[in-house]
From TrEMBL:
Similarity field: Belongs to the IS21/IS1162 putative ATP-binding protein family.
Record InterPro entries: AAA+_ATPase, DNAC/IstB-like, IstB, IstB_ATP-bd, P-loop_NTPase
Pfam families given in the database record: IstB_IS21
Name of the protein described by the UniProt record: Insertion sequence IS5376 putative ATP-binding protein
PANTHER family (UniProt xref): ATP-BINDING PROTEIN RV3427C IN INSERTION SEQUENCE-RELATED, CHROMOSOMAL REPLICATION INITIATOR PROTEIN DNAA
Keywords, comma-separated and alphabetical: ATP-binding, Nucleotide-binding
Gene3D superfamilies membership: P-loop containing nucleotide triphosphate hydrolases
Lineage per the UniProt record: Bacteria, Fusobacteriati, Fusobacteriota, Fusobacteriia, Fusobacteriales
MF terms in GO: ATP binding
GO biological process terms on file: DNA replication
Length: 247
């Protein structure tokens, strides 16, 4: 084995894939006296750091379990002109996470609540913040299963470790009292410790109908809204904007 092959092998063992890819190009620059050894190593390591950062971002986004990769730049603010675009762009600074604040997107189905929550979540994940997206019904089913298997505390701690948890579609399906208690435990565990984004199509005054218990609904809302930014979207559905009604 030549020294070149040994070097490539060392790069592979150290998982320096970018250095393997770019070594020949940088080597040619050295041979042509275009760069010094120090400058060439700096270029190689910079490229490796850039590659590693991109890979880390991709991994964090995959962990987030987002249903799509839509960004705020993909959002049609012209279709929802009442939205404060600057406020939403401000959320991408992620200051609300540092302040342990929540965001609640409220509006009818199809107005862009999930799109907005996902775009903020992706921004957080790409900056190395542990983020996770889950629909409310799936979350409750997972907690119910954990309770039956006597691992509820472990599951609650697992969901609580995310600095940003996105709970989508709260209120789309009814939640019985026992399930409401499970959700309350999670919300209570995250209260003033981590940030949560909620999307819902049900006005807060009717949450007692969702959770089938006025005291539980009040307790959940109290913890969600205490440090929260509420974004109300009153526009039309994106899904129906191209729908043509025929006579």
């Amino acid at each position: 084995m030549t020294n070149y092959q040994k070097l490539m092998n060392n790069f592979e063992v150290l998982k320096l894939n970018s250095m393997i890819t770019n070594f020949k190009t940088v080597q040619d620059k050295i041979i042509e006296n275009k760069v010094s050894i120090v400058d060439s190593m700096l270029e190689l390591t910079n490229l490796q750091i850039e590659f590693s950062n991109l890979k880390r971002k991709d991994t964090m986004v995959k962990i987030g379990a987002f249903p799509h990769k839509k960004r705020l730049t993909d959002f049609d603010f012209n279709f929802q002109p009442d939205l404060n675009k600057n406020k939403l762009l401000e959320f991408e600074s992620l200051a609300f996470i540092e302040n342990k604040e929540n965001i609640v997107f409220y509006g009818n189905s199809g107005v862009g609540k999930t799109h907005l929550s996902v775009s903020i979540g992706i921004s957080a994940a790409e900056k190395g913040i542990k983020t996770y997206f889950i629909k409310c019904n799936d979350l409750i089913q997972n907690l119910k299963k954990a309770k039956l298997e006597n691992v509820l505390e472990k599951k609650l701690k697992n969901y609580s470790r995310y600095k940003l948890l996105i709970i989508d579609e709260v209120g789309y399906l009814p939640i019985d009292k026992e399930d409401s208690k499970l959700l309350f435990q999670l919300i209570d565990m995250r209260y003033e410790e981590k940030s949560t984004i909620i999307t819902t199509n049900i006005h807060f005054s009717k949450w007692n109908e969702i959770f089938r218990d006025e005291m539980l609904a009040s307790a959940i809302l109290d913890r969600i809204l205490h440090h929260a930014h509420v974004v109300s979207i009153s526009g039309n559905s994106y899904r129906l904007k191209n729908h043509v009604v025929k006579d």
